[in-house]
Amino acid sequence: MSRSAHPAGPRYADVIPEGHYTAPPADLNELDPRVWSRTVTRDAEGVATVGGLDVKRLAEEFGTPAFFLDEDDFRARCRAWREAFGDGADVFYAGKAFLSRAVVRWLNEEGLHLDVCSGGELATALAAGMPAERIALHGNNKSTGEIERAVREGVGRIVLDSFQEIVRVAHIAEKLGKRQRVQIRVTVGVEAHTHEFIATAHEDQKFGLPLAGGQAAEAVRRVLKLEHLELVGIHSHIGSQIFDTSGFEVAAHRVVGLLKEVRDEHGVQLPEIDLGGGLGIAYTAEDDPREPHEIAKALGEIVTRECENAGLAVPRISVEPGRAIVGPTAFTLYEVGTVKPLQGLRTYVSVDGGMSDNIRTALYDAEYSVALVSRVSTAEPMLSRVVGKHCESGDVVVRDAFLPADLAPGDLIAVPATGAYCRSMASNYNHALRPPVVAVRDGEARVIVRRETEEDLLRLDVG
Questions:
Q1: Could you tell me which residues come within 8 angstroms of residue 251 by beta carbon, excluding any fewer than 6 positions away?
Q2: What is the pTM of this model?
Q3: Helix, strand or coil, per DSSP, at residue 258
Q4: Which residues belong to the active site?
Q5: Residue 65, preceding bond cis, omega within 30 degrees?
Q6: Which of 305, 323, 322, 327 is nearest to 314 (CA)?
């Protein structure tokens, strides 16, 4: 089909747009650096490039849909976080955002620690050579096998999430003749301004032991009585995609209050406090995330002030950025399959992926940007909804965005800021094959997670 063979669909002037946008961008061809990785630009022909490679050639070599990860950007963000917090703090990359053996090697080389929350993530970390003492194991229901492997390998900390887990970890450590370093995860009653499913510090949810009612204090008492557990600190996490530090201020006040109770009751000053992660990134131009040095300064001042007020020495701070490191470093490249204008509403743009490679829009009502990247266009903007190929009306990738009115099948469009959670949460819904992750750096591209094949799919089906 030629680019002029279908009606252009509703323009912005013809319809009041719904959702995030109030007006189309001034230039649909601009690749806003707030949402794209640092090496993304357009070449002389108007084709988007990353790491010096144009997306048309990348699509020819690796196919679509595919995730393209800017390795230079990833490493630069690791260094920015490590340098912002300095030697007096620990930066744990939250592996749940996206993990592979290549990523683990990059983290190791850049001097970061690693937070894992399953046996699979732990296995990946160890297989890629991350020193066990720089690994933390999270999770609200760790299996006996996961705990046993973590203790045996000597992970640097296990974050305890329940009274049952205190006993479980202590028993395994005793059986293995180890003394395991642990933290207690507490819920501090702070609701981050985020989606209900990613706010994690209010009491009515599955994570941690609440400060309210004294459960966290009781957990401390129980751990301190067990000789095979070494309590090194308190852990708190208030949610995800957070843009200010006010919630952390309240959380730190309450966690430091618990540290003071521990000192007064037990004569023990715990040496560590982990404030978790959850700092947001820019998915659209309207998002305004904080820089690592701003976050480090704010959190350091908050903890120092609270400890001084409580008469405590300042503990070593840990943070756990995951999305904030990997999220902006990757984009998903799709090929347009159909363009369907609905008069007076919007144009539906169907791509060759969907909720199997990005469930976040359906799950969290997440917002994304999107751009035509295989060429430039001078056409007027049309209000669009980018949807996938799955048999679900909720199979939406970008709910409301503006794309050029001459968009046509065969064009390549890309959704930025998909480094976090998209590949990690990918599925085989409708027996879709999960896309590859391709690392790009200095004019070279290499697969770090290969595309699934039909053989992979059928290998698990034992008939």
A1: 188, 190, 201, 236, 238, 275
A2: 0.92
A3: helix
A4: 391
A5: yes
A6: 305
